[in-house]
Amino acid sequence: MTPRHAHLVGHLCGLGTAIIWGFTFVSTKMAMNAGLSTFETLFLRFAIAYVALWLIRPRLPKWNGWRSEWPFVVCGACGVSFYYLLEYSSLLFTSASFVTIICALGPLFVSVAMWIVYRRRPTWQFFVGFMLATAGTVLVVTAGGVGLQVTLFGTLLALAGNVLWANYCVIVRRTDEGDGADTILSIRRIFFWGLVTLAPFVLFYGFDVSDVNFLAPDVLVSLLVLGLLASSAAYILYSLSTRLIGEGKTSIYLYFPPAIGSVAAFFLLGESIAAAGIVGIIAIIAGLIISQRGTQ
User: Fold this and answer.
1) Could you state, in order of their start, the residue ranges of all structural domains in the chain?
2) What's this model's pTM, rounded to 2 decimal places?
3) Which of 81, 158, 174, 263 could form a disulfide with 197 if both were Cys (CB 3.0 to 4.6 A apart)?
């Protein structure tokens, strides 16, 4: 693959990840409407993803000691279990609209982490694009007249989630060593540790799915989308994108999910898009383009 083709494939993988994660909101809402809690949905989606990756790559990874395993453990905790637990917990104290805005700050946290760890200083184009995309996100999530319920504790939880995701983006490159060169095997190992670190929270959140009809179309489809697409496929695409174009450029595609989610809700859930929401989507796209030009 030529450098030009690798660059194009990297951007397509980043865009594909954003599109898939944009539909996560709709799928999660469908699962919760069917009787699953947020924690049950979270655990089941990554359990399905782990099993699916086992079927695709049915072999054990080489064990080279904890020194080689720790990047997978940290990525499982930062990029799977603790990240989503913080995000979901923040929803108990702060409105979903405000959490969406906080999550849109993710590329800034990743850029700062890259600056601290790898001395990659962001340019002025990145910050201009960041402010434009963030403003667009605010327009998208508030276009329907939804109020922003803001609390300090909920905000801190959402911000902590961004810090964990930035750590994931920094450390995930360490999984390129050894068996990690196999992206599918690498992501499967990350999911394994994500589930291991997620399991103890069953004692706190509970896990009772006895009343859920898993063969019902809305439950089955939503869990398969979350497990096979939003988890397995999206994490693999995100990992490939970071390898081909870098963590900074890949993280900028995280601006896109709110816009994709708004469009998906319009077509699949019948929700309306106000004029301000359309302006916000355009601003997000413009911000993404400008940020990409100023990111290494």
Assistant:
1) 3-293
2) 0.85
3) 81
